[in-house]
Amino acid sequence: MEEPWSPGLWERPGRFMAAEAGYPEALWVLAGAPLELTVSYRAGTRWGPARIREASYALETYSPHLDRDLEELAIHDAGDIALPLGNLGQSLARIEAALRRPYAGGKRVLLLGGEHLVTLAAVNAALDRYPDLVVVQLDAHTDLRDRYLDEPYSHATVMRRVLDLVGPGRLWQLGPRSGLREEFQLAREQGRFYHDVEEGADALAGQLAGPLRGVPLYLTVDIDVLDPSVAPGTGTPEPGGPDFATLLRALYRLARAGARLVGADIVETAPPLDPSGRTEIVAAKIAREILLAFTGEVAQ
Amino acid sequence: MEEPWSPGLWERPGRFMAAEAGYPEALWVLAGAPLELTVSYRAGTRWGPARIREASYALETYSPHLDRDLEELAIHDAGDIALPLGNLGQSLARIEAALRRPYAGGKRVLLLGGEHLVTLAAVNAALDRYPDLVVVQLDAHTDLRDRYLDEPYSHATVMRRVLDLVGPGRLWQLGPRSGLREEFQLAREQGRFYHDVEEGADALAGQLAGPLRGVPLYLTVDIDVLDPSVAPGTGTPEPGGPDFATLLRALYRLARAGARLVGADIVETAPPLDPSGRTEIVAAKIAREILLAFTGEVAQ
Amino acid sequence: MEEPWSPGLWERPGRFMAAEAGYPEALWVLAGAPLELTVSYRAGTRWGPARIREASYALETYSPHLDRDLEELAIHDAGDIALPLGNLGQSLARIEAALRRPYAGGKRVLLLGGEHLVTLAAVNAALDRYPDLVVVQLDAHTDLRDRYLDEPYSHATVMRRVLDLVGPGRLWQLGPRSGLREEFQLAREQGRFYHDVEEGADALAGQLAGPLRGVPLYLTVDIDVLDPSVAPGTGTPEPGGPDFATLLRALYRLARAGARLVGADIVETAPPLDPSGRTEIVAAKIAREILLAFTGEVAQ
Amino acid sequence: MEEPWSPGLWERPGRFMAAEAGYPEALWVLAGAPLELTVSYRAGTRWGPARIREASYALETYSPHLDRDLEELAIHDAGDIALPLGNLGQSLARIEAALRRPYAGGKRVLLLGGEHLVTLAAVNAALDRYPDLVVVQLDAHTDLRDRYLDEPYSHATVMRRVLDLVGPGRLWQLGPRSGLREEFQLAREQGRFYHDVEEGADALAGQLAGPLRGVPLYLTVDIDVLDPSVAPGTGTPEPGGPDFATLLRALYRLARAGARLVGADIVETAPPLDPSGRTEIVAAKIAREILLAFTGEVAQ
Amino acid sequence: MEEPWSPGLWERPGRFMAAEAGYPEALWVLAGAPLELTVSYRAGTRWGPARIREASYALETYSPHLDRDLEELAIHDAGDIALPLGNLGQSLARIEAALRRPYAGGKRVLLLGGEHLVTLAAVNAALDRYPDLVVVQLDAHTDLRDRYLDEPYSHATVMRRVLDLVGPGRLWQLGPRSGLREEFQLAREQGRFYHDVEEGADALAGQLAGPLRGVPLYLTVDIDVLDPSVAPGTGTPEPGGPDFATLLRALYRLARAGARLVGADIVETAPPLDPSGRTEIVAAKIAREILLAFTGEVAQ
Amino acid sequence: MEEPWSPGLWERPGRFMAAEAGYPEALWVLAGAPLELTVSYRAGTRWGPARIREASYALETYSPHLDRDLEELAIHDAGDIALPLGNLGQSLARIEAALRRPYAGGKRVLLLGGEHLVTLAAVNAALDRYPDLVVVQLDAHTDLRDRYLDEPYSHATVMRRVLDLVGPGRLWQLGPRSGLREEFQLAREQGRFYHDVEEGADALAGQLAGPLRGVPLYLTVDIDVLDPSVAPGTGTPEPGGPDFATLLRALYRLARAGARLVGADIVETAPPLDPSGRTEIVAAKIAREILLAFTGEVAQ
């Protein structure tokens, strides 16, 4: 009905590159969750989903590293989840509700944030289908506080809440270089904690060949895991992180180890904080490589 | 096919606010033409259509001045016209081809630029249907050069080419405050030239009640007609223009005089040149007021 | 204890200019409330209080218009109210609690936002002491929705909640030029609505000489009442507002009419959205003029 | 020697538009003085001369208001005066020395700042040739402090120093809206002070037809005399000034009254503070209009 | 004629640092080509030449790595090539015409872009004199498409056109990490392709000691070959590239191998896209190191 | 007196994180010196102290690398040293006078610049107490010119003046990659010069275990020692420096070697030049690590 009248001449913006599949036939569902309610320093993540989609057109659909092309995948871009203003509980409930159906249908979901709290809702949705889910966190911060400024739900407590959900030993943390002393202690005791992302990816890859073989994985990439020189457009940049190539190597390591990725997110991209516009391109390229690297056989 | 699975939870960005109608039932067709090839000073108009659509959501669909609401109109947002890179002739041909059909179908078109040259293609498309078209130009510049740096087609010559098309006396110029001595001479001789936009609107309104009653009008708004304090995001800001309220008064004046607007454009909005982001909001509000003010009976 | 060791050589930043009084002797208490939870378009108001204080040093303490000097007033800068992240109800409760004491002590309060919802908490605090409070709103938006995206508390509903508190006829709205049709109807029916700020100030001044003589006034200035050319650093700039001199004339008009101002706020200043940095200077100058213009005899 | 080998193909940037005359035949000498040493709030004026020259190419050489063209004038762009770093006295001495010769040769000088202190050096140079010089200051600030932070030479004291030089009654101040109470008192007593620039221009024009007929005038335009919405790129923007058209009307008023302008400057343009880039265009257009409006018969 | 009157006091901006030689005696000719017509994503390269020249003054003329100084070289800065607006064919023709003479005169040319298409014109000019030219491309993109959006000439096809000119095996590509699958296939088959710039430089250096000894080299540096953290100011930044030191090492490797560089360009620097201003400094430093490293004996 | 009335609810900004100690009990005194008078290229260091303090709240007080927490240290934030405008000699005298007392009292001082010249005053103050002071400079530039544009005191000569004070062999220079040939010769002859910061730190650490055991050290960190990708917000960014982790490793190396740090500064941070805001976070993190790493036993 709404099709333009002379198709060859028209472009319709708004989708991630090559995400042209309809929902029914899609293997991957891409969605945005522009949540931004618990920011402590600088804002802008609400613009993440829209700008990452737009930035994807600065890239090619083909990855020379992987020799694969997004055009060979069935990806559905579902748009953004509509969120009520200023209501955190309701927002998380809507995200969870929205994502429950694709997970139930065996589809994989790539969620674009928005602040890190969206991961809590996404993991909740995935757990329904995959009760033995293991979560891999790439992040500059531990995010393991129990409370932050008295609040149990915030970008600084999100992984503690995730840890509550999945249970000890099922959260792998790669990259944290900032947090309270207590958080690092907890990380070392209960999580699987690696300051160095490549070392952590190696360790996890080893397990994927052993005790964790076939386990469903959820990957959450906080863009601030990268050094701020690589991804300055984020709320709380933490100097001293890995460069882009190092991050990709860690992801490739997991993919080559046969990781069964069932869901993922890329969060904390705050485009207005990076006038050079490269952070959203970085996020879009990570999205492309995740989509391409982890698409293999997902046994049910 | 591509409908999201739980409609109430999802938003799909990319359209101008309230432009939800399908093409067949639309009264107005809104389209983008991100052309940017003959820029002489600073670039950015290629981002005009996308950012104006996005900025429209900072506004309401209701105009208290006019006591009308966009939601009461059938508007179709057709997306952007696909343009080849670096090929000016081909680009203009595509724009003209794309717009010919809605004009033929009796629809009105609001085109979002892009640089001012898109007006030439749009007027060409409209002339097919409305051979007696009168063009109203709101602009800081005369744009009446015959050649600019030896080239016949550029943002500085566009209205000369339009004048060639519609013929002497059928181009009304409101607002120009910059140009060559020769351009001002030509403007005074052949066009209908008014430095003051309100004075010009009054004069034209007078004619619309007389000799020009019922004549089809095409309105081209170069955003730089406004003072740069109001619309800094444009390639060649020219200090000394009217403020926003003055511009709207001029438009309302024409509408109240019963102008029969069949097409319009808003051009030269260059969002990257205005980090405050207000220029695209200004453009979106002008678009809203044009859509609302000039929607009356368009007799064929 | 914390005094620097050689006082003449040191500067200690962080306060509004000339706000050097201690709390006990202060006539005015200045406070910040960097709330930002219900933003719908663009963020940045959390930086309002800090940047307005900093910007005040670009101004003089003396107003040639009023021939008065801030150094002649006892002003206490109390700092910012600590707000929990992502918890709207708790945030409003804290602001109200924090402001209740100075109002109880007969002091006047100038609050720097943050988003417009802080006004609801501030009015609540003031009502305790002044049950017959009349609220004057300078704003581009009506802010009279009953719900916004299903939520009763947001920047788009704040004045409806204030109207609920003070009752019909006790809310004067000067300047609104954007809203829903229903909001404008409500504004005209129950509030005191004037699109033109000077006309509204005249009308109110007339009442202050009559039925409203001596009534305690609360003034809320949403910085977006100004045209975006004057104050671009705000979340939802609405083209078509008054310039700076016009706004000041309206304020002077009220002051000359003997308005008994007991509290005020300046909200929605979003410094990161205005790289030229002038919006925070505009806000600081409005703060200075309010402090100077309305300091006369406040009968209890 | 350094001429490019195929002139028609090459452009050599770096000069103000149409300032192509050699020094000997020049009527006007244009020069830059990128001084920036006594900044109290925000920096950037050192980039003024370079960016104003560059911005001039966004304008035409023809002024429709005056119906004159820069190409009809002999203007020499001498480049910038080389200034030592961090040495204020030496810097002022160099500016004065550099400008003494063109004044001695009967040429007129248009100086592009740089901070306002450059006016002191320029007036000193002009006084040698024109001992009866009258200075006209367009400025948001009085700049009449005797000392600022203990220093006698700064942007806040510059016009006091100029007043010391030219003597009481020979300094006309148009536009000031910020200063100490003492400065405004001095302004009213010794200077010729007008808050409103048009009113001041009228008063001066009246004198030019009478007691001041034929007196040599020096005009200093502090760009911050304009409202910050018009010229945000300046160190201490002061809300509440005139718009661009008003400033031009004041200048035209003086020109029509037969003002014998022998020198002028445009100062305090700080391009990095205005990412929209319009402040330097505003400065360039003021420069153009000064050059065109005041070029008549300069009797010696 | 145009010399300033007191030379010691004046600076004349507009040239690259130390490029003070006249054309006849120059060994190197430096020129700008601010072409920008086939941009697909973000614009700004037209400001490349002017800003790179300006940024050069943030650097020293001396390179401690090479222990050489630009002041010891005869460099002529010819300014920018004048380009017609919106006419790609004519623009390329002018660049080629402009550069033909210095190449014919045995001078070396360093061209500052502008978009990458300028390389095509420059190589054409060089081929006249050096029919056995070998081209070395440092780039994030293969640029080997045959058509891009139907056009044969664009920034995405430029090296395919160059390959057409110089023939198989005479194009060395160092650094590409983005392109179509077909482009990488072609790169591997016909070009000399190395993803790793140092590895590629080693391989080429090996040939320069053998089969390619004495062959004339043309070097094109697309600034986006660097990681976007190093050079964010470019149209299509591609995450994952080498850092600055790595790029220099590759250049030094070629220089030490006795490369006979006859021409070079640095393209795609888009200063407006990098508000930190470091990209143009990076480009200026690469220019300095190229000028210094490759100036040895150029046998004819 | 000035305490807010309900302490739990209020925050008072303006100090470096955790710098809550009073002067008497403080081990470290933190002070700002926003000097900016001899800038040659781009300005902004005057905003260094204020923005670094503010940025510190984006970090944690705990360092996982060192397993120490600022909250365990007694740090007094003394505010900024008041500086006269445009008077270099007086400014340096005030900084020296201000810092003399804490040094005399055996406290350690961390100074936040401002431009690099503040180091000269700080070293002068420290030398009074520690005549055998050794200075360690981390910097991209040699800063060893004897004169710069004829001036003996500037950011380009500062370390030459420091060398004059401490004498040959007592200045260690780590990182310089830009300067005149003469400066590098002097650096190699009289200073202790290492292009590679880690290599330099190793060499110095070796001496600290031997001939320099127990010697009082002063550390000056010019933020431009880092690669501009890491710290773009600085006046003269010099491509090709170390990344953040490398810099920290060098500092840790000195700390582990038992360096007796008595004073330090972090200079040339120019926040307005980095819209991403990460440079001030980098500076704040370096400050944190210096405070934590070098706090051990300082024998008198």
List the helices and strands and how they pair.
6 copies of one chain form a homohexamer.
Chain A: E1 10-11, E2 28-33, H1 48-55, E3 62-63, E4 68-69, E5 75-81, H2 88-104, E6 108-113, H3 118-129, E7 134-138, H4 158-166, E8 171-174, H5 181-190, E9 192-194, H6 197-208, E10 216-222, H7 244-256, E11 260-267, H8 278-293
Parallel strand pairs in A: 2-5, 2-6, 6-11, 7-8, 7-10, 8-9, 10-11
Antiparallel strand pairs in A: 3-4
Structure description:
Chains A, B, C, D, E, F: Its cofactor is Mn(2+). Chains A, B, C, D, E, F: Keywords: Hydrolase, Manganese, Metal-binding. Chains A, B, C, D, E, F: Mn(2+) binds at residues 116, 139, 141, 143, 222, 224. Chains A, B, C, D, E, F: It comes from Thermaerobacter subterraneus DSM 13965. The structure is a homohexamer of 300-residue chains. The first copy, chain A, is of the alpha/beta class and 300 residues long. Chain A has a single domain (10-293), classed as 3-Layer(aba) Sandwich (Arginase, Chain A), CATH 3.40.800. Helices cover 32% and strands 17% of the residues of chain A. Chain A has helices spanning 48-55, 88-104, 118-129, 158-166, 181-190, 197-208, 244-256, 278-293; strands spanning 10-11, 28-33, 62-63, 68-69, 75-81, 108-113, 134-138, 171-174, 192-194, 216-222, 260-267. In chain A, strands 5-2-6-11-10-7-8-9 form an eight-stranded parallel beta sheet, sandwiched between helices. In chain A, helix 3 (118-129) packs parallel to helix 4 and helix 6 (197-208) runs parallel beside helix 7 (244-256). The radius of gyration of chain A is 18 Å and the shape is globular. Chains D and F meet through loops of D and loops of F. Strand 1 of chain C pairs antiparallel with strand 5 (75-81) of chain F.
